[in-house]
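Q: What does the assembled structure look like for these inputs?
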Amino acid sequence: MKAFDYAGVSPREVRQMIREGKWTLPTPGMCKGHVQGNLVILPKDLAYDFLVFAQRNPKPCPILDVTEPGNPEPKIVAPGADLSTDLPRYRVWVNGECVEEPTDVKKYWRDDLVGFLLGCSFSFEGALLEAGIPVRHIEQNRNVPMYITNIQCAPAGALKGPMVVSMRPIPAAQVPKAVLCTGRFPAVHGSPVHIGDPSLIGIADVNKPDMGDPVDINPGEVPVFWACGCTPQAAIMDVKPPFCITHAPGHMFIADPKDADYAVF
Amino acid sequence: MKAFDYAGVSPREVRQMIREGKWTLPTPGMCKGHVQGNLVILPKDLAYDFLVFAQRNPKPCPILDVTEPGNPEPKIVAPGADLSTDLPRYRVWVNGECVEEPTDVKKYWRDDLVGFLLGCSFSFEGALLEAGIPVRHIEQNRNVPMYITNIQCAPAGALKGPMVVSMRPIPAAQVPKAVLCTGRFPAVHGSPVHIGDPSLIGIADVNKPDMGDPVDINPGEVPVFWACGCTPQAAIMDVKPPFCITHAPGHMFIADPKDADYAVF
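A:
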């Protein structure tokens, strides 16, 4: 079975399958139309700074849910779910180093841990595709190209750092539509942060992304940059917290709401 | 001098005037087009719950800025300003009781205090007026009518409670436009939470608001309800925190950004 075979299965059923250890692969393509989220789990003492950082930088840090300290249930976006078991693969970080990539984090769970789910670009990419706008890295079956920019996030407590962006080449005539149809989703990164000349945001070579894969930019296409959910993880890793858990790249949490639930118009 | 005489004065100048004690009256009408914010100042231990509460209930709790603990400068919306001096009147609360209504709170300031500025309905009322939609309580020179609903906010830590809403009667044909033009401002309460029959959200008599003044609802008009910034203050007062400071009603903080800066489309 491939991820796309689960496109029509409910989030609850897929989470159950993941919880039982029957699915340990990336989640893109599963539960089509439902929101997938990035996971960050922090001790409560750093959770406050993280909340403020997210509040000050909503485009790269769109929070979908915050759990009560010690309770791994994301009550807003998936009542009954368990953030310590319901993702297919995690990364456990100690002093900023990844020490394990387990398929659950039950043994690491503590009474002071707070789970954050953050919106991800899968949601607005669905909107782009539905609007007839190509999404190159999907066409080319690659990871989206990501870049560290010279746009500084507003710092909060110990957390600071540059904004990370993802790039999608858009045919020039479709750029306005791409702005409008992603702008409908401010809770999942929203409208682009930059359109056109990469050097204006500190990107030396658009063909050499800092993370992910390069994609083809065809004649007549404009590189369009959106705030990326890697931004908050990068800010956290920068402070090398004593303890932290994240999802493994591509192994997201699948929530109950649909992408459309986050549209503001 | 009346508030409207300061419609064209900059926020920085008006804040300076307030800081020097030369203006101690309500702020509506001052610095036209600039955002005015509700103030809540909390000790850091309760600030975390408040941030989570706001994250879970963004419509009634639209946070514009959060200060660093101990520092009264709202660096995002008004660099150089001072939340302990730049509002014309405050309320100081001890164990849930208002003990003083001073014109500054310098003597109460502490190293563990965090200031929150929350969006207010003045911003979207400007948008309604510009769209040619009447705002009845302004026409009638009254306070906006506010109601405690049966819509429960998502709780967070110690904070819970019902959503408080404000009501504006809108001519039926203009209701869609009122939805669209306030929906552009999700950071300042956004689109309505309810349109029409007040009983569906637990309001027994629309002519008897829980706070504020009743206003006339003319034939052919529909009562339209927006989430109200009184909601978070009510949730805080419900837990009777040992210490808390708020603005006095109508005596808001005038920030640098313009209302238009918060429009998402």
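Chain A is about 20% helix and 25% strand.
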